Amino acid sequence: MIRIALVDLKIDLYIPLSEIIMKKLLLPLLASLALLAMLSPAVRAEKVRPAQIREAVNRSLPLLQSSLKEYPNHAACFSCHHQGVGMFTLALARTRGYSVEKKGLEAVAQHTADDLRTGLELYKNGKGQPGGVTRAGYALLALQSGGSPKDAVIEAVSAYLLQRDKAQGYWNDTSNRPPSEASAFTDTFLAIRALKAYGDEGRKEEIEKRIESARQWLERAPLKDTEDRVFQLWALYEAGAAKEIVKQSALALLKERKEDGGWAQLPESSSDAYATGTALAVLYLTGELSSEDAAYQQGVRFLLKTQLPDGSWRVVSRSKPFQPYFESGFPHGKNQFISIAASGWATCALILATPISKKVTQSGAPLVFHSP
Fold it and tell me: Tell me: the pLDDT tens digits for 128-145?
């Protein structure tokens, strides 16, 4: 007999050794129990009041929307930090009953579609636009979040993603602008998500093979930072990896939490809103963490504590600028682009800690977000 006792959880299991198949039962069981131990009621944080969360979200959303409106006045190109994360955040906010201007969402979708259309021939030729998979993937994520139907441009972009990096089995990053444009895990997630949403039905078998190849890579590839861990987890979930594999990835991400309840982009760095927001949002969206759990509540407290009075979160950029400087209507000067991405993800994490609005779900609004 094998006895597994977790005092904090008051679990006392007796399992006959003859009934255990090591790889099929014991390891997944231990992983599940470890996760339960981390989230035990004995270590639960006091729950943050919903009113506090709503107040923080309602301070952030107007600033995000105003900057999304201002950005096209200075740049015609699509941006991952503005339109990509921004559209995902605003669409998610609608599902929880927050006030979001419909015309604003339509304008973001139009800006995104127009930018992709300028590169249509490049996508048809298999070259894509500058920014490669990251740009194309975030653009399709933005369009999917807003409920845009497939058209000729979207079909060309998804076909480009299907053939891009085909020989290596996963999608590689082509930029070095951390954190969001320097991870093959991010690009692989974006490509998988796009192909599942907009892939050609006539190439379904080919798409499935590519996603399966990516899944195998995701399970064995080394990880260097929090961005890798977050998007490895999300990509594994989207790729249909075994539950125990997804759970192991989630546990590894949870172990990276700092004492203040947040996550840092790099092991030696301090917690920040970008790493914390992405970690919480993805742990929730993959069903690996509830907003009621201690880890989530502690992360929410970190975000509430670090939000500035104007509704933003300031994060210092790790990327070297390569475009002419301009003001996008978001604070923090030369750190505005990473800060708006961080503020978007932080807002997502807070939004997910509030109930889904039944009024919105009954209206037929596109819900592309998993809610455990």
Answer: 999 999 999 999 999 999
